[in-house]
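User: Please predict structures.

Assistant: First:
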Amino acid sequence: MTGLLNRRAFEQRLDTQLAVPLRQGSSLLILWIDIDFFKLINDRHGHPAGDAVLQAFAATARSCCRANDFVGRLGGEEFALVAQVSSADDAQEIANRLREAFAAQTLIWEGAAIRATVSIGACYLNCVHQDMATLIRDLDTALYDAKRNGRNRIEWLEQDVSRRDRVIGPRLARA
């Protein structure tokens, strides 16, 4: 329906990406994304309207991607995006651009205006990270913190750059 990678394909590609050493001056941005109040959209406007919102988000996410970036639909209203970036500022700019671009859209469905936002758990990796299960768990925690803290926001994982084998620390940084 969205034309995006499914969960299995996305996780395989992420696992491959995490196993490859990063080039000098290259880092990764990983976003774990959930459409806010999606169930209400389906309940108020019907599942075809919800499908249209999913398709609109997929198009927005693809528009924020470059050639080597990839985005997947993990299931329901959950998505993820991986982008190669040159700096933490670049990562923050892409994440904010995605969040703001989707929030600015209005979908007209059978005469009704539908607006939606996303909550995002985000990670900026500037060295190899080989523990995908921990990374996904931490991103999921950051995503749900974004929802608990008001939605339509980004919660960033804090980096532990003192350890080269593991970038993600247990603490979360507020965006």
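Second:
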Amino acid sequence: MSPQEQTEQRRGQQLLFITLLFGILLNFPLLAVFDHDGKVGGVPVLYLYVLLAWIAVVVLTGWLVTRMKHEE
């Protein structure tokens, strides 16, 4: 297996991990933890959690893709 193929396979595995992480973060048990009447700065806690999880996944994916481009 060539180094290029190994890099592509590794990138695919890391992107799959990020996808699974996002699926876990937005799964029922964790959503239920944040589903209550509390508010942070006037924003419901559940909405804030979903927004922060989404931002974290976008940032992590962007960092991973740009890092892999620099390694090529």
